[in-house]
C-alpha cells in the first residue's frame, strides 16, 4: 500500500532474498522435525546372540483327540497355553517345537527367538497334520533330528500327549533318544478311563462325536504306563496335567539344575534409529534462521 520507491527508502537494506531464505530454513526445520518424529531406521547392524542354557524341544500332540473337552477349553488349547507360559520362563535356553499326530514334523527349529517360537505355537492345530493317529515314536525320532547330533548332553525333550500308541514303537524310540543323551519329560493329558472325541462342522458348531465303522463312539484314553516308561528310560519324569498348571514349571526347575552350555543363535540384522540426524538438522536450520537478518548492512562510502 504505497509507492515502491518510498517503501525502499523507508526500509533501507531490506533484502527480499533473505526473507525467502529465512522462510525456507523455517520450513526445512519443520520438515526435519516431522521426519524425526517418524523415527526413521536406516542401515543395519549384524549381531550374534550368545547365552548359556540347554536345548529344549517340545513335542505336542495335535491329533483330533486333543479336542476333547475334559480339560477346559480343550486339551490342545490347555497344552498350548502351558507351553506359552514355559517359553516366558526361558532365560537363555533354545526352544524348538515338533507337532505330531499320525506322523511328526518340526514346526519350529531350535531358536533363541522366543517371539517366533510363540508365533509357531499359535499356528499348531488339529488340521496341521493330515495323517490321523498318535505316533509318539515318530515324534521322538523327529525331535532327535532337531537336536545337535554331535552332542550327548544338554538336550531335553518335553512330550505332551493324550493318546496311546504302540505301532510307532515309542519305547524303542525312547531308548534311542537315551543313547543320544536326550532326557525326556512326559506330560499326560486326559483320563485313563477314556472320553469321546468331539466333532465340529465347518462353522465350528458341535457335530456329535467321532465313531468307528460300526457306529460306536470312539474314546481316547491316556496310556500312563507308556509315558512313564519313556520318561524313566531316559532319566526324565512323568507328569499328569492338572488345573494348577505346575507341570512345566516343575520341569523347567529340573532343567535349570542341568549343566549349561554356551548357545549361539544365528546372526540377525537390526535396523538402527537415525532420528537424531534429522533433529540436529532441524536445530541447525532454526539457529541459522534466527541469526540471519532480513536487512543488509548499509555500507556508507564518503567521497573526498
By secondary-structure content and strand pairing, the structural class works out as: alpha/beta
DSSP strand tally: 14
Give the overall pLDDT as a whole number.
82
Strand content: 15-25%
Give the SSE order as H and E letters.
Answer: HHEEEHEEHHEHEEEEEHEHEEH
Global morphology: elongated
> Whole-Å distance between the termini?
39 Å
- Give the oligomeric state of the chains in this entry, treating copies of one chain as homo and distinct chains as hetero: single chain
Radius of gyration: 34 Å
Number of helices: 9
- Uncertain stretches of 5 or more adjacent residues: 299-304
Strands in their spatial order, largest beta sheet: 5-4-3-6-7-12
Largest sheet: 6 strands, mixed
Task: Name the helicity range.
Answer: 25-40%
Amino acid at each position: 500500500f504505497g509507492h515502491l520507491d518510498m517503501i525502499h527508502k523507508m526500509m533501507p537494506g531490506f533484502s527480499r532474498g533473505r526473507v525467502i531464505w529465512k522462510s525456507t530454513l523455517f520450513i526445512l526445520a519443520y520438515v526435519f522435525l516431522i521426519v524425526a518424529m517418524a523415527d526413521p531406521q536406516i542401515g543395519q547392524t549384524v549381531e550374534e546372540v550368545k547365552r548359556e542354557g540347554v536345548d529344549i524341544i517340545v513335542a505336542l500332540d495335535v491329533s483330533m483327540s486333543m479336542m476333547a473337552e475334559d480339560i477346559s477349553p480343550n486339551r490342545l488349547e490347555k497344552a498350548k497355553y502351558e507351553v506359552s507360559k514355559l517359553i516366558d520362563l526361558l532365560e537363555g535356553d533354545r526352544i524348538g517345537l515338533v507337532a505330531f499326530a499320525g506322523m511328526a514334523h518340526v514346526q519350529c527349529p531350535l531358536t533363541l527367538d522366543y517371539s517366533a517360537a510363540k508365533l509357531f505355537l499359535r499356528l499348531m492345530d488339529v488340521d496341521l497334520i493330515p495323517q490321523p493317529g498318535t505316533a509318539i515314536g515318530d515324534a521322538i525320532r523327529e525331535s532327535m533330528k532337531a537336536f545337535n547330533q554331535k552332542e550327548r548332553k544338554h538336550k531335553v525333550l518335553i512330550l505332551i500327549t493324550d493318546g496311546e500308541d504302540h505301532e510307532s514303537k515309542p519305547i524303542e524310540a525312547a531308548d534311542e533318544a537315551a543313547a543320544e543323551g536326550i532326557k525326556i519329560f512326559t506330560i499326560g493329558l486326559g483320563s485313563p478311563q477314556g472320553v469321546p472325541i468331539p466333532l465340529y462342522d465347518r462353522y465350528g458348531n458341535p457335530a456329535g462325536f467321532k465313531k468307528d465303522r460300526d457306529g460306536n463312539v470312539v474314546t481316547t484314553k491316556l496310556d500312563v504306563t507308556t509315558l512313564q516308561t519313556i520318561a524313566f528310560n531316559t532319566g526324565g519324569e512323568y507328569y499328569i496335567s492338572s488345573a494348577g498348571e505346575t507341570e512345566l514349571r516343575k520341569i523347567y526347575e529340573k532343567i535349570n539344575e542341568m549343566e549349561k552350555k554356551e548357545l549361539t543363535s544365528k546372526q540377525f540384522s537390526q535396523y538402527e534409529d537415525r532420528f537424531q540426524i534429522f533433529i540436529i538438522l532441524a536445530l541447525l536450520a532454526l539457529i541459522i534462521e534466527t541469526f540471519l537478518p532480513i536487512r543488509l548492512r548499509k555500507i556508507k562510502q564518503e567521497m573526498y
